[in-house]
Structure formats: C-alpha cells, structure tokens
Amino acid sequence: MQISSSQDDSSCNFSFLRSTFEDMNDSSNIRRKRRRKDNNSHEEGSEKKEDKKKKGLKEIITSLVLLEDQEKSDQDEWAKNSEQEKLILESNHRKKAESTLNCYSDLQNHYADLDESVRLRRKKSRASAVASVAAIALEAESAKGESENPAQAGPVQRRLWVKDRSNAWWDECNKPDFPDEEFKRAFRMSKFTFDMICEELNSVVAKEDTMLRAAIPVRQRVAVCIWRLATGEPLRLVSKRFGLGISTCHKLVLEVCSAIRTVLMPKYLQWPDEETLRKIKEQFESISGIPNVVGSIYTTHIPIIAPKISVAAYFNKRHTERNQKTSYSITVQGVVDPKGVFTDVCIGWPGSMPDDQVLENSALFHRANGGLLKGLWIVGGSGYPLMDWVLVPYIHQHLTWTQHAFNEKIEEIQRVAKGAFGRLKGRWSCLQKRTEVKLQDLPVVLGACCVLHNICELNKEEMDPSLTIELVDDEMVPEIGLRSVNSMNARDAIAHNLLHHGLAGTGFL
Q1: Cα–Cα dist 408/412, whole Å
Q2: CA-CA distance, 480 to 383, in Å (whole number)?
Q3: Whole-angstrom Cα distance, residue 494 to residue 413?
Q4: Which residues pair with residue 378 across a beta bridge?
Q5: Contact between 457 and 422 (Cβ < 8 Å)
Q6: 227 SS3 class
Q7: What is the value of pTM for the model shown?
Q8: Residue 352 DSSP one-character state
C-alpha cells in the first residue's frame, strides 16, 4: 500500500509539473505572439511615417520645381518684353531721326532754290541797271567831249555813280602806326595774325578793277568780315564803319567766310595724324590720369530767328523755359584737343535735337564706327551715350566712391571743351545773339568762326577776360544711355585703376 501511494504521489507531481510546464509554454507563446504583434504594429507605424515623409518631400520638390519653372517663364517673358520695348524705342528713334533728316533736307533744298531765284533776279536787275547807267553816262560824256573839242573826240573812261561814304575809321585802323592793342580790341587778333589771314586768302578773295569802279582791297574785305563776326553788330553799323553799302558788306562777309572755310579749314581744322594723336593722349592723361583720350566733345546752341519752314524742328524748348522767351537755335558739336583747338566740328542740325542725335548724324560718328577711333576715347558729358569710343560719367544715383572719383576726372576733361566753346562765343560775339544771316548760310559762317578760333589759339592770341562768357546748354540724358557692354566694363576698369593707383581726386568728400 505504501508503494502504491508513493507511485500516486509521484504521478501527481509529474502531472502537476507537466501542467506547469505547459502553462509556462502557453504564456511564453502568448508573450511571443504579443511581442510579434507589437513589432508588426510598430513596423507598420514606421512605414506609415516614412511614407508620409516621402510624400511631403515629394510635394516640396514638386512645389520647388513648379516655382522654378514659373520663375523661368517670368524671366523669359520679361526678357521678351524688354526686347520688344527696346526694338520699339529704336524704331521710334530711327523714325524721328529720318523725319528730322528729311525735314532738314527739304529745308536746305527750299532755301537753295529760293536763294538761286533771288540771285538770278538780282543779277538780271543789276545787269540791266548797270547797262542803262553805263549807256547814259557814255552818251553824256561823248556828247560833252564832242561839244568841247569835236576834232579830238574819241573813247572815254566810263564811270558808275557811287554814293560817297566815309571810311575814315578803317583808314585809321589800316595805318602801320595804329596801336596793336586797339587793333586787337576791334578785331580780336593781332596785326600779325590778321596779315597772315589776308595773305592766305589773297588769291581767292582779291578782285580786279573794272571800267566802272575800283575793287575793294583784300585787307578791307577781310576786315569787314572779321569785325562783323567779332562784334556781331548789324550790317548798317558795319556799313558806316567801312564806308561801304549794306548789301556790299553782307556779300563780303559771306564771300570771306566761304573762302576761310574752303582755304583755311583743311589747314587749321582737321583730324590729327598719328604722331599728334600720341601727344594729345599724353597731355590728356597728364590732366586726368585716363589713358587713350584723344578729344573732349561738347555741343552748344546758336540762337537764330524763327525759320519760315520747319519751325518745330528748330524750337529750343529748354532755352524757352529758362528764359521765358521763345527761342530757336541750331547746334554746333565740336571735339577739342587739350589746348582747346577744334579737331572736328558738326554744324547746322536743328536745336530740338538732343546731343546724342546730333552725334549720330555727324561724320565723326560714321568714321568712328568705321574704325577710326578703335582703342581710343572721346570724353563727353551726360548728354552722350556710353559707346565703344565715347566715355561718359556715371549718371545713376547712389554712386560709389570709385564712381565719384571717376566722374571728377571726366569733368576735368570736359572743362577743356567747355572752355574752348566759351572762348569761341566770347571772341566772336555774333554767336551770342540772333543774326541776320540766312539759315542756309549759317553753317558757312559758323565754320569760319571755328577756323578763326583755331588760328587765334594756335598763335596764342590772348582774349580779353571781359569777353569771357558762361555757357548755358542743357544736357538731356539719352533714351538709350548704354550702347555697349564692353564699354561699360572698360569704364569700370578705368575707374578702379584711377582710385587704386592714387590718381583719383577727393573733391567729392
């Protein structure tokens, strides 16, 4: 019995142990399943989070791509609009220039035809009057000679009646002992320079005596022209000074100015040769520190009487607004060397044209674009565009130190041109007020003034300080101020070198 009870106890213990092991296995399986389930749910959550992140990144990238595409399309559209606007501006500019050129050409043709018809009528009337007077005088002399001495009647000297006028003032000026200071005050030059001009023009200006009257001497012809240009006095006063008729004085002024332009301009107003250009560059560089400068350009206005046709083309709006008086003008564009001597001029364009349009219509512009000024600079003011051969100051706001210094040096070169034009107008007072000369003859007169200015400057003729005038010419910023990107880079490089090599001034500080 004891043996069986021990067997029962052992079997019970075994069963209990087995059930305990089974329960432990079941609980470990349950924990393992829960752990696996938790791991699966955690992995699913991580995957969902990664999916959300990827989705967000994709949306951000898509937005950036869309923004970039939109910005690119906006830039393309802006560039296209800018190009169209530029083409429109250039087209309008060309149309304006063509219309102005056509208007000027029509004006010149009209005045040429009118002048030719007037000249022919005057020539015919003068010829008929001279013939009739000569015939009457001849008949009278013949009749008188026959009545006094019929046996010795023969050919007689014909003579044209001329009004007796006093030329005592000119006779006094023409004397060898006339004071040189008085002569210079009247004619803006010394006797030596005046005699040189007379000698140069003698072969073109001289006239021969006729049977009706004695020819006017060369010195008196030249003196009439120069005194008229120097004083700007009306022709009636010129007539009284020199004892000549008003129409004769007007004719002499035009003839001598034409001779000066024909004979003296090729000699005293021409573009420099290579050796002279080298010296000019050195002189300008010593003035400003800017290399390769061969000229300073400036444009001034000459007042005129309102023309009969194309009035709007010659209307000077800026001078009218300043003076509160209607003003009309023509332009004179000039390039000068460091001494103030003109090396190129462009004369006669209407006063309504801004400086950049006058430049574009000049012969200098076409020669420069043809390669005349390659690697060289002509310095202009703010009214000119920046080009491969035209150097101008910075005109935008908030300039840097370097740009201020550059503008200061440009102004030093511009003062050379402004000083030359100030002496030109001061020496020849006819340029300061409206003249009686016809519009089609003005370019000849103005060209003669520029040549005479050069002769005086080359001969170092000092000008009376009281004759100095202050120029008043408004500069308009051109519609297209930048014509070349290369020139912009070159200007920046020059400005940088000026400042960093100690050549820039400090007047702006």
Answers
A1: 7
A2: 11
A3: 15
A4: 295, 390
A5: no
A6: helix
A7: 0.69
A8: T
